[in-house]
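Weekly structure sync, notes
Attendees: PL (lead), two postdocs, one rotation student
Agenda item 3: pending single-chain targets
PL asked that the sequence for the first pending target be pasted directly into the notes so everyone works from the same version. It is reproduced below exactly as submitted, 254 residues in total.
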Amino acid sequence: MSISLIQLEDIVRKAGAIALTYFNDLKHVEVNKKSPRDFVTAADIAVEEFLKLTFTQKYPEYGFWGEESGQSANQIKRWIVDPIDGTHSFSRGQYFWAISVALEINQELVMAAVYAPALNDYYCAEQGKGASKNGQVIKVSTIDNLAEAMVATGFACLRSYLEDNNLQRFAKIAQNTTGQRRFGSAAIDLCLVADGQVDAFWEQELNLYDVAAGALIAKEAGATLTDFQGNSGVFPKQILATNGHILSQLLPLM
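Predicted structure, written out during the meeting:
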């Protein structure tokens, strides 16, 4: 690869600084709706424009897929970017939002960064080399009893008014776990699994740019990544990330 994790961090942190200028002056930030329950802000556009321009100029051998601007011609080797994952939280002044950047080559995720500027947390990973948070190696939790587990989920499916809306799954899993969290950013949720702060995360009806970076970080920290039937892989329309120890206990509830 022509880029290192250090070089990627420099770019992503600069993008975070741009996002923070908007976050610190939200009363002047334009917020629009892509659909009745899906938001986009001027910050989303500005961050993605910066990342697209920077990556295109510095690393022209890679294509680009951003949530706001779509896909460029080259999608065999590409950056997969969500400029602000958790836009609704961002627009309300909450801290759980992140810039998500992954590099995919021949359908394999090889490098990733998730930066939550308001929390000052920077996660990154490179294929086969482990994951880190703020420069420290991270690993998934060792909880092996679902009854003691803390889990996280989201409800992107409600945004789309789907009949299969995750509420029944949540009800069953909530009754069988100790703690349940809903942070509003799949990228952060996956990093929290990687960091051992939660033991599992599941969601449905996401896009690859929502989960690509967080999925690699979680995997490199020791997480299992499956669909709701237990098939291994990154399935953005149906993703389940666990610490591995509670996977078999969760699957019957999915």
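Discussion points:
- The helical segments are 5-23, 42-58, 87-91, 156-159, 167-175, 186-194, 208-220, 247-250.
- The chain has a mean pLDDT of 93.
Action: rotation student to compare against the earlier draft before next sync.
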